[in-house]
Amino acid sequence: MTTLLQVHNLSTYFYTQDGVVKAVDGVSYHVAKGETIALVGESGCGKTVSALSIVRLIPDPPGKVVSGTVQFNGTNLLTLSTEEIRRVRGAKISMIFQEPMTSLNPVLTIGRQISEALELHRNMDRREALRETVRLLELVGIPHADRRTRDYPHHFSGGMRQRVMIAMAISCRPQLIIADEPTTAVDVTIQAQLLELIRNITRDLDTSIILITHNLGIVARYANRVYVMYAGMIVEHGPSMDIYHDPRHPYTLGLLASVPRLDEPRKTRLVPIEGQPPDLIYPPKGCPFHPRCSYVTPSCMEGFKAELMEVAPGHYSMCWIAREPKPWKKTSS
Amino acid sequence: MAVAVEVARPHHTLWGDAFIRLRRNRLAVAGTVIILVIALGALLVPFISPYDFAKQNYDAISLGPSWAHPLGTDELGRDVFARLLYGARTSLAVGIFTQAIVLVIGLPIGAFSASVGGRVDNLVMRFVDVMYAFPDILLIILLRAIFGGSIFMIFLAIGLVAWVDVSRLVRGQILSLKQRDFVTAARAMGATGRYVTLRHLLPNSMGPIIVAVTFGVPRAIFAEAALSYIGIGVKPPTPSWGTMISDGYNQIFAAPHLVAFPALAIGILMLAFTFLGDGLRDALDPRLRR
Amino acid sequence: MLKFTVRRVLWLLLVLFAVAFITFSLMHLVPGGPWDREKELAPQIVENLNRKYGLDKPFFLQFGHYLWSAARGDLGVSYSYQDRGVTQILLEGLPKTATLGLAAFLLAIFIGIPLGMAAALRQNTPVDYVSVFFSMVFASIPGFVLGILLMILLSVVLHLLPTGGWGSIKQVIMPAFALAALPAAYMARITRAGMLDVMRQDYIRTARSKGLAERIVLVRHILRNALIPVMTVAGPQLAYLITGSFIIESIFSIPGIGRLFVQGVFARDYGLIMGTILFYAAAVAVFNLVVDILYAVVDPRIRYD
Questions:
Q1: pLDDT for A193-250, tens place per residue?
Q2: Contacts of residue A89 in chain C, CB cutoff 8 Å?
Q3: Are B280 and B22 contacting, i.e. CB atoms less than 8 angstroms apart?
Q4: Contact C187/C113 with Cβ under 8 angstroms?
Q5: Which residues sit opposite A65 in a β-bridge?
Q6: Nearest residue of chain C to residue A96 (CA atoms)
Q7: CA–CA separation, A133 and A108 (whole Å)
Q8: Which of A172, A236, A301, C148 could form a disulfide with A249 if both were Cys (CB 3.0 to 4.6 A apart)?
């Protein structure tokens, strides 16, 4: 498989009045052609910022990408001119955002919002773009698509708006779609429909997807590989089945314990992760997770190195007690 | 079950916090200082300036600024500096007294309308809407023409037109506060409607009212200047900045300072109140509180 | 939409009725009648005059008669201009006042909105601070103060422009700027606040993620939303400007409605005062109604029912 996107040592900081927020701190990941990867973590862990950094949509000021490279088809997106990165956005890399309620412009029709990208990147005239818009809306399952192009976002329900966002994202046949919590804000019953829709549409086009979510349950079904982020760093990554069945970081373990699983007896209790997400201005010394970790040892603070170690083939973790298989059983009783 | 609690941060009241925020706002501080300086000058003018506001001196007509007359003299040989400070008395009096009238009318009507609610409230608000439909300066002029008489009638004319803002504000404040939990709690403990209004609702809507009143002052000052400018304001020889502008305007080529100084004075005083009002709004706005 | 318009028009008529009634009642409270002159008129003449103008009739009959005429466009007689009715006098002043007001309105838009945009796009830079400071100053200094200062500078000192009068473009410049300063400052403030609010909305990020050029994001996505609140204040501002400022008109000797009104006040011409107030109130109300309807056209979220 050829690598489509290679993010290397990316750091994005926010310079605020209270101090420097290290929202993303030395993150590396890659996406192969046609592959779906997932970035997983609590809100505020840097997963959205790391994805927005790829297409340089970080509001500056206060945000700034301070180091790293983003190789996309062999070119570093971070060194492109504004004009060049614009030609990537929407055309080769498109995005689906979390909030369908606020991510569409309230005073423009749905048709206009989809067709403006078509006119820009596929050089269509108004009529062609409108025809294509109708086709796209039909593709994402919006009934009476030809009439609904003239409607405004507030005429649509949350789920329908997210379908519009999907239509917008696929409109220019991008090679990569960044889906930032695409189902968090919609009803549970619609979440699965939307994810199936994204998968079905993109499979035919061989599109790669970066799926950003805090729900590890989604990941097992839709992603090939998973990156778990905590405090602006990747703390564990590997094939999603391995992560799901054999997590090698206490944080991942905590995330898994906090979502319901179908493959375990029902009486297992859902356990929230204790404590608050870390302060990114003054991160804890040593392993960032140690204040909340139930397996913490003195060496988690002194002499800790923020490095990923291969704990199983293709499976990496930042936690050093995780090197042995299933290390959690002995203490978690 | 008394638990000793150590408070790390010095305890501030709501108003104390607002005062600290106000003091940090440089424009608001500047506005306050300007207002105080003008007010002091207006109070102490007999000690500051040897001239009387009405004393005419035909040997010194329409002079430019000099050591004897720092801002010159007018067409009747009166000292402009002294007249400006006496005129400040008029402007400040108008600003303060009209707002007092505004409060006396607007507060009870707004509070009454909101606490009674229903059809009465509806009727009062429709009346307020009608008041808004009037071009306010023209209505003031009409009232002024009807009342005639002394400077107090000017206060009344302006106050009778300006109260609608405050009454609408008070009503809105009380209606939104009514929905809040602490009022429900007070009700649940058996407090009566009037008690709730006086003890809980009015004090809690003080912030926005203070801001509105502060912004009302420059508008009243402007209204008085306008009345005096067109000759139906303060009666001569009592100095008013508006009258001074209208008198000086006739000599704008010969002695431009006669119209420039009172015009600047009005602009500066109004600006000072606006700075203070902006500062108060920022200081008292609960949405900005952290 | 039609229902909304009809209801609003009915309400407007009701308000104007109330305004007329209040003004009419107030005028009857006025001590002294329109015939108070330095030289007292003989009682017989006063009686004749009263009869001629219908002032001897009962109050409600007079009011009803006034309303009936006003509805047909006749705002009654002016006691100081014997040869013309109030409607005629107002119509003579209107073109001047409206021209000046429109000029000031255009100035306010073309100064205020770009100023607010620049401040928002360069937030927390000197551009922003200067813009915010100036809009604060001009929002709180009355237009006639500015007018006088402009006149001293441009007419008295530099001899560039005439001090007043009506008829040439040069005579419009100063009063238009003096009149425009306040609404321009106001629009700059609202534009800035609106832009800042819209610029951090999610849909702006969406627009950028499509690869649109900054210019298109600004014009199509940011401005369309940010100017909606500007429009709501522009309506009342336009009404306020078109109806003019009587002080500005007096200072610059422009024979518009405002100056007529001042003259009417001096002459105790209550017919003219009443007509002017009613005319102003009607103009403001109609403008606000038009803006409310336009508002629904610009902002699709608004529905009237």
A1: 888 888 888 887 888 999 888 878 778 788 889 999 888 888 888 888 888 888 888 8
A2: 208-211
A3: yes
A4: yes
A5: A12
A6: C206
A7: 14
A8: A236
The pair of structure tokens assigned to C64 is: 């009803």
User: Are residues A108 and C201, on separate chains, in Cβ contact within 8 Å?
Assistant: no
Strands A3-16 and A19-32: antiparallel
Question: Whole-angstrom Cα distance, residue A101 to residue A97?
Answer: 10
pLDDT category, A138, cuts 50, 70, 90?
A: confident
Q: What value of ipTM does the predicted structure carry?
A: 0.80
Q: How confident is the model at residue B130 (pLDDT cuts 50, 70, 90)?
A: confident
- How many Cβ pairs within 8 Å bridge chains B and C? 108
Relative to beta strand A315-317, strand A233-239 is: antiparallel
Give me the residue from A57, A120, A121 closest to C208, CB to CB: A57
Share of chain A above pLDDT 70, in %: 92
The beta-carbon neighbor of B218 closest among C136, C140, C273 is: C140
Chain A: nearest CA to C295, how far in angstroms?
A: 12
Contact C203 A86 (CB under 8 A): no
| A20 beta partners | A15
Q: In this structure, which amino acid lies at residue B89?
A: R
The SS3 of residue B75 is: coil
Q: Which of B233, B247, B234, B241 is nearest to B269 (CA)?
A: B241
Kindly report, residue by residue over C225-272, the tens digit of the pLDDT: 888 888 877 877 777 776 657 788 888 888 888 888 877 777 777 788
Model confidence at B100, pLDDT cuts 50, 70, 90, reads very high
Count of CB atoms situated within 10 Å of the CB of B238? 18
Residues of C with Cβ-Cβ distance to A90 under 8 angstroms: 209-212
- The region, left, alpha or beta by phi > 0 then psi within -120 to 50, assigned to residue B149 is left
What residues of C are in contact with residue B137 (Cβ under 8 Å)?
Answer: 246
Confidence band for C305, pLDDT divided at 50, 70 and 90: very low
